[in-house]
Amino acid sequence: MGEGTVTGLGHAGLRVDAGGVRILADPWLSAGGAFLGAWFPFPDNSHLVTPELLDVDLVVVSHEHLDHLDLDLLAGLPESVPVVIPRYPSTIMQRRLRAIGRTRVVVLDAWQRYPLNGDDWLTVIPEQCPMSHDAAVLFKLGERSVLHTNDARISLSQARRAMAEVGGPLDVMGVQMSGASWHPVRYEYDEVERERIATIKRVGKFKAVTRLVRQVRPRLVMPYAGPPCFLDDDLFELNSGLRPGGIFPDQGEALAWLADRIPDQPGVCLLPGDQIRLDDLSTTRDPHWKDFRLDAGPEERRRYLTEYAARRRPAIDAAWAANPVSRPGLAQRFKTHLESLGTLSEYFLARIGMTLRFDVSGPHGGVWDAHIGPDRVVVDLDGGAGHADYRLTMDGRWLDGVVSGRTRWEELLLSMRFTARRQPDRYNDYLVGLLKHADRAALRAVERFEAARDPEETTTIVVGGKQLRVSRYCPHAGEDLAETGVVVNGVLRCLGHNFEFDLTDGTCLNARCDPVLVKPADYAEEAV
């Protein structure tokens, strides 16, 4: 690897070489994929796994998702190589790294600089709301800078501070433009409704990134939209490019969107092995891809993915073998596990308040109802009667992994190995937060963050030619609505996570969330 380069590793992974320091950032290169053998990098990046590429001085990992925290890869690196991670309320990353024998783990606070060589450094920029444990990584490399946003939805104010930290405009800015969500693709919608929701989420993500890039104006923007690809037969039809639309755009689609909306913004799409030279920001293409086209039609994409799936068949089979049919006692293990979650946070339970039905197939399965909130969790193993606000249907083998401790809830949900239904069809972030964190410190951090927000601070928007004052910060994750708020058909939509608010009374229309404040623009003057 040459000096002064950024090399795409596939997905959101980068290798950075500068000032004599060699760094891997969020590398995902292991043959086993991630999330119960469901996700694999697209396109196949296995040609990069060489002793030369893995000969590094440092690894930095943004968050614990296994398409970023490649435990198999990290376990094989020399013990002398430190792994740098952000500090989150939960210590799950430290624990997972210790479990694979990593003894040199460096935990950085937000904006704390880790020295690389001379005046070069890196730092981490976690999302403002602790409900999501995601972070960007900022590199200062001589006269150049690289902002690697990974999956983090950083705010404009954070991006502006990043520019201040490096002393000028950002040179390379990597932006994530693909979602990583099981909604709506695993929900029991008809095809028309599923695609309608997917389009809203896809376009919302694109617009949010476009607004950020338009304000930041990096010298070179690099969308690394993912997307994951799904090589198991059970999930294959979720793949990007097999039909129009969907929730998982590829890198080429993301770059084309940015080029259309910001035509004077230089951009580049890196395939695994492609390089950017930091001195002049020119690109060198990996000859491995001379016969590959991101913009290939559906049949060519299907053919490529089918051949890729054949190469990864051993890994897929291994994921199934590691999760055999459920053992006796699954129901009681499930009950114990779910009811233990109810002891972690009264704050979350009060904001969930629903019945979650599990329809579990396979040996020792059944229909089990978890009544979550307002102050505890009670599991009825003779469930199925009465209304359920939320239903999850899955093979018991995958659920057994969670309740036995082999798998975390979010890994199961991201695996897409289930189907779901909501009645009413409204998102509840507290339910997802309780499951994905399952950690008292992480849940308390969310409670403290939400309690500290000032609901009276407002910003002005224009609706139908009239000015309104609305809450400055989205009550969901604290996004600055002066930056991320748009009005669509008389509804205020936060582009951070697509939460929508009625502009008559501030009610959240599509999720369980506190309302925004809505006042006439001249409210203060009238009050005087």
What's the layout of helices and strands?
Blueprint: E1 5-10, E2 13-18, E3 21-25, E4 39-41, H1 51-54, E5 58-60, H2 71-75, E6 83-86, H3 92-99, E7 105-108, E8 114-117, E9 120-126, E10 135-141, E11 144-148, H4 156-166, E12 172-175, H5 191-216, E13 220-223, E14 228-230, H6 251-261, E15 275-277, E16 283-284, H7 298-311, H8 313-321, H9 330-341, H10 346-352, E17 354-361, E18 366-372, E19 377-380, E20 390-395, H11 396-403, H12 409-414, E21 419-422, E22 427-428, H13 429-437, H14 440-452, E23 458-463, E24 466-471, H15 481-484, E25 485-488, E26 491-494, E27 499-502, E28 511-512, E29 518-520, H16 523-527
Parallel strand pairs: 3-5, 5-6, 6-7, 11-12, 12-13, 17-20, 22-28
Antiparallel strand pairs: 1-2, 1-15, 2-3, 4-14, 8-9, 9-10, 10-11, 15-16, 17-18, 18-19, 20-21, 23-24, 24-29, 25-26, 26-27
InterPro entries: RibonucZ/Hydroxyglut_hydro, Rieske_2Fe-2S, Rieske_2Fe-2S_sf, UPF0173_UPF0282_UlaG_hydrolase
Pfam family, one: Rieske
Keywords: 2Fe-2S, Iron, Iron-sulfur, Metal-binding
Q: What's the CATH superfamily of the largest domain, by name?
A: Ribonuclease Z/Hydroxyacylglutathione hydrolase-like
SS elements, strand count: 29
The total count of helices amounts to: 16
The percentage helix is 25-40%
Strand order of the largest sheet: 7-6-5-3-2-1-15-16
CATH architecture of the largest domain: 4-Layer Sandwich
Shape: globular
Coarse structural class: alpha+beta
Mean pLDDT: 93
Number of domains: 3
The parts where pLDDT drops under 50 for at least 5 residues are 524-528
Beta content comes to: 15-25%
For the CA atoms, what is the radius of gyration? Answer: 23 Å
CATH class type of the largest domain: Alpha Beta
Largest sheet: 8 strands, mixed
Fold-level CATH name of the largest domain: Metallo-beta-lactamase, Chain A
Note the gap between the termini: 67 Å
InterPro entries: RibonucZ/Hydroxyglut_hydro (IPR036866), Rieske_2Fe-2S (IPR017941), Rieske_2Fe-2S_sf (IPR036922), UPF0173_UPF0282_UlaG_hydrolase (IPR050114)
Protein name: UDP-MurNAc hydroxylase
GO molecular function: 2 iron, 2 sulfur cluster binding; metal ion binding; monooxygenase activity; oxidoreductase activity, acting on paired donors, with incorporation or reduction of molecular oxygen
Domain Rieske: 440-528
